[in-house]
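user: can you give me the structure for this one chain? tokens are fine.
assistant: on it. calling the predictor now.
[tool input]
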Amino acid sequence: MSKANKVGLGQLRQKVEIVNIDTQVQYLKGVGPKLGEALRKRGVSTVGDLLSWFPRAYEDRRAARSISTLEPGQIVSFLARIVQVRSLNLGRSHRKIYEVVVADGSGRVSCKYFRVPYKGYFERFQPHQEVRVSGKAQLYRGRLELHHPDIVLVGENEEQEDELIPLYTETEGLRPGKLRRIIGAAIDKVILHPEKPESQIDETLPQWILQKYNLIPRKEALKLIHQPPPHSGNEYIEFKAPAQKRIIFEEFFWLELHLASVRAGVKQEAAPAFSKKQSYVDRLLSQLPFQLTGAQQRAFFDIASDLQRPHPMHRLVQGDVGSGKTMVALMSAVYAVENGYQVALMVPTEILAEQHFKNAQKFLKSLGIKVGLLTGQLKLSEHRQVCEQLASGEIQICVGTHALIQKEVDFKNLGLVIVDEQHRFGVAQRQELKAKGASHFLVMTATPIPRTLAMTVYGDLDVSIIDELPPGRQPILTRKAFENKRPKVMAFVRDQLKAGRQAYVVYPLVEESDKMDLKNAVTEYENLQAEFPEYRLGLLHGKMKPAEKEAVMREFRDGNIDMLVATTVIEVGVDVPNANIMVIEHAERFGLSQLHQLRGRVGRGQHKSYCVLLLGYAVSEDGTKRAEIMEQSTDGFKIAEADLEMRGPGEFLGTRQSGLPGFKMANLVRDVKILQDARQAAFALIQKDPQLTQPEHEKVRQDLELTRTAIIG
């Protein structure tokens, strides 16, 4: 090797020895290129990423347990020997359940896995091997089991037996003990013994926030999260330790600071103030065959008050299924028209757009207001005509889908944007519509949002809640039933059809699938035709053309179809008062909010209504629990709280669609008090320094830009 090459290698080694949070993780002691690549696949590229890979749980090895002492709900750790390792086919599908049965002197327990942690995970285990099992004990059909526990061969475990051990997400080729040693090396280089001042971990929060909310420094928190101090225990297991509180606070703080800055910016913008005259609204209300509920009146009062101020309205109206949000939206729309502005009402589906369009035409015809419909399925000539009428101002209220945000769509004087089922649209799509000239922005959702989630996803919006149902809405009796009770369920459906009512039967799939052993709408439609030959059946699913779907729905609405066999395409907006019974097959495959939305399609007329949740044979504990919650409550807000708790915020709304960043440690259900503190701190900071221009907030402003990038993309 030449002298020059030796010098070059020496310089490289010297450079790599100075480790900071931006150093590539492969250069950390004990890693190397191969393991570095495996870590990169997990999103861990730098030493900073490694320190931010937080434990998902902690295992207390000081509390020795035996299998016979396990109780449901406990997070446990115990030594045992492997009795059996096997995989089980799930019905006719290709899905498998993996089972590792372990035993000690006191008994045996099954460890089940519904997915493989990584390739080769189960091949490591053989009967008679000694292992340590760590996880949560739970009851499943009356038997105690552990689902997806950590199982480590005792020979692989080099930790002291009396420690509190952090548990990380399993990674192929990286044993838990080795990962802890690598993180320990990072802590040593970056936190305990940084080579240069610039390689230290910077504090990200202002001192006054640290002091007011009793938060420890970030550097100290990062160390203690990965290396809990001796004699610590339950506070770490329950995520209540000071180190965890600091990181949880910080994760919430950056999101709330973004929302606070957006809200402050909106409050500073100028917008035309509407007059207090509401003759169009009065005329609309005078022709209604019903009285508004108090909640509807309060919601419209909030909206009208916003529109009378010289700043943009950004308001969310939440209302349960059937609470009357559509009428509040129409009142807001005619108020805008009376003030000389056009209105855009954007909805997620063709069927819902057409239904809103027809309702608006029916109620607004006597007011002389021109209503238009713009969807992707219009003929080119029809599309062009609507665009011309929008540009000229002839169309005053336009109902549409994503077609409203196309470049060729221009409004003459767009003043109000109303978005229905807001969580189904991305942030960028909403902004595109607002950029077409709207000053005021109204969000409507029939998916009740728990208070904790509203503080995060909708923290930049003012909120109105319609928490009353119109008089005359029938309570819906909900019952779960297992597959063996299906004949009785269908006999009950037949009784309702004989009485002149109509029924929905909903399936999770359109067609048969090799991957899932579930009933599907197309096959079961044929079976139900044979089972109910004397009745007229219709089929509705998402793969049908829009014109076909509309034709089927029209026939069902007009009473020409007795039983509608469908997928979740009916989840939003379909209104058939004579339909009083819904059967949801494989109800365990649906989330709580989705079940609640589906159930809301019945109970819209004068007849007693029913919802039957048919559960399949292989039903998880969560699937059964969701059905029981549905039996116990028809309150959408209570159901939403339970749904959030069971599924987490990412699944509840869809992380990308909601604009909610993925939290690494924070939990919206468990950490609501910390969320409230973080929100208070963020809004106080923006009030104190709206543009974050003060020198002490320079680092905060930089980190906020990173948060905005993560949220908006």
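assistant: here you go. Residues 1-15, 655-659 have pLDDT under 50 and may be disordered. Residues 242-268 form the longest helix (27 residues).
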